[in-house]
Write a structure and sequence with these properties.
This protein has 499 residues and is of the alpha+beta class. It contains 13 helices and 22 strands.
Length: 499
């Protein structure tokens, strides 16, 4: 029987961070994720490593956590973090009182700021609205959530941690009122496994309530959907924020070859089957254009949405709920963690593991703030253009993913989903959104014998359906014309109409 000290449910940044923390403390563990890493809110965020400035006025606890973790992650995860810096932009009509409160809050929390004149701000980001009245520089950064999860898992695997991706927890085993294990189903084969553990950690994010119910418990959660849009190129090399109380569409984040803009806040009952509406796209694009006018004419190539699992609140507006986090000991062998942000994932993992160590009556210190993330030596750094060694054997021109990158992933994990390659290489995450490179990657999978021709067709069909769901809300103008070309490639040249 497979027995672990700790069973972790959820493969987002928090779950992966918990796995790394436990590994460095020498605690046996396994991690279970029903899809691939970063499949929930982690992979559907805007990739902003917060300076804390966004919360410096109304959510000071979260702001303090963000600036502390910003500094730690910039040190331990250099190849996950792009040191873009950030600007909070004040436009005509934006409150000077809020600006004063923002600066005082940042000073009190130790968040470095520099007030810039319009001329200086435009020198840094020429695409800014020339009508801006001033800007405040802060140490915001861009972070790659997929790399972050993978590197945390490197430490876990190196120390004996077992990882079960594409496995869904279908039941929690209880004996004498205590949670003592889980039953999980492998999604492709439907085979059932059973794992026993001394502690079960519920880090399932927006799905955490479902796990708690399996254990006979409940959680004080509020679900808030955030929708974002992706541009076909970088409009700014710095993070751009609106200098006002948090609202829709007031953040633009450079991310490799593109920019991400968002986000909305809409209460939802379920994290499944999310849809981005045309109204949300219009709102985000309109608000982003007020900061960067080029947004009015830029080609939008994709939309996506994630669900924030926030602490329960009577507030009608999810933006008023604190972005801090809470750890809940259900007193039956289950620990849950809810709330928080990608920026504070490491701290969340540390505090959760501290609670687990007390429960197990063990004393081993957290090491995650001091030790650099392992596996970074295999990664190429920022910016993207610095990685180009040769156009030879490039599979994905947008993200400069080489054939050797794809082959390495295939040999390591034998993927059955194209998303497993995307998350580990960034294949298909650039302007074409996989339209011109996915079939090439599938060809490599077939050549290596990891999938059959029949399996590759099913993988391709699933990918195309998921891709179209994200592209459909922005199908107009040049984006529609490019999509018609891609449709011809798949239906005409590749004869996908037969399937």
């Amino acid at each position: 029987m497979n027995v672990k000290d700790v069973i972790i449910i959820g493969g987002g940044s928090t779950g992966c961070g918990i796995a790394r923390d436990l590994a460095l403390r020498g605690i046996s563990h396994c991690l279970i994720e029903k899809n691939d890493f970063a499949a929930g809110a982690t992979g559907a965020c805007h990739g902003l490593l917060h300076s804390g400035g966004r919360y410096a006025v109304a959510d000071t606890d979260a702001a303090a956590e963000c600036i502390a973790e910003n500094r730690i992650l910039s040190r331990i995860g250099r190849k996950c973090v792009e040191q873009t810096g950030g600007l909070f932009v004040r436009l005509p009509g934006d409150s000077k009182k809020y600006r004063d409160a923002f600066l005082k809050g940042c000073e009190r929390l130790g968040i470095e700021t520099e007030v810039l004149s319009p001329t200086r701000a435009l020198e840094l980001v020429p695409s800014l609205n020339p009508a801006l009245e001033e800007a405040v520089r802060v140490p915001d950064c861009s972070i790659d959530p997929f790399r972050l999860c993978m590197l945390n898992i490197v430490s876990s695997k190196a120390r004996g941690g077992e990882i079960f991706t594409h496995h869904e927890v279908i039941n929690i085993i209880k004996e004498r009122g205590r949670c003592v294990g889980v039953k999980l189903k492998e999604k492709l084969s439907s085979s059932i496994k059973e794992i026993r553990g001394k502690v079960i950690v519920n880090a399932a994010g927006a799905w955490a309530q479902r796990i708690a119910i399996l254990a006979g418990s409940s959680l004080p959660m509020t679900l808030s959907k955030g929708s974002l849009v992706v541009t076909n190129h970088r409009l700014s090399n710095m993070v751009i924020n609106r200098l006002r109380p948090p609202s829709d569409g007031d953040i633009i984040v450079p991310n490799e070859a593109v920019c991400l803009a968002g986000t909305t806040s809409v209460a939802v009952d379920s994290p499944d089957n999310l849809e981005v509406t045309s109204g949300e796209v219009e709102t985000v694009a309109w608000e982003a254009a007020s900061m960067v006018p080029e947004f009015e004419d830029v080609r939008l190539i994709r939309t996506y949405a994630g669900v924030r699992a926030l602490l329960n609140s009577e507030s009608l507006d999810g933006r008023q709920i604190s972005r801090s986090f809470q750890i809940i000991d259900h007193k039956n062998g289950l620990f849950s963690i809810i709330g928080g942000k990608l920026s504070t994932y490491r701290l969340m993992a540390e505090k959760l593991c501290d609670a687990v160590m007390r429960h197990l009556d063990l004393k081993r210190a957290c090491l995650t703030a001091e030790k650099p993330l392992e596996g970074q030596e295999e990664l190429r750094g920022y910016p993207l253009s610095d990685r180009l060694e040769s156009l030879k054997d490039i599979i994905c021109e947008c993200e400069l993913v080489r054939r050797s990158d794809v082959e390495r992933v295939i040999q390591r994990i034998s993927p059955k989903h194209i998303g497993d390659i995307q998350h580990r290489t960034r294949l298909g995450m650039g302007p074409c959104q996989g339209g011109f490179c996915t079939y090439r990657a599938l060809g490599v999978m077939q050549e290596t014998g990891k999938v059959s021709p029949e399996e590759s067709i099913e993988i391709l069909k699933e990918f195309l359906q998921r891709r179209f769901k994200g592209i459909r809300p922005v199908l107009w103008g040049d984006q529609l014309r490019e999509e018609q070309l891609i449709e011809y490639i798949y239906l005409g040249i590749l004869s996908m109409e037969s399937y």
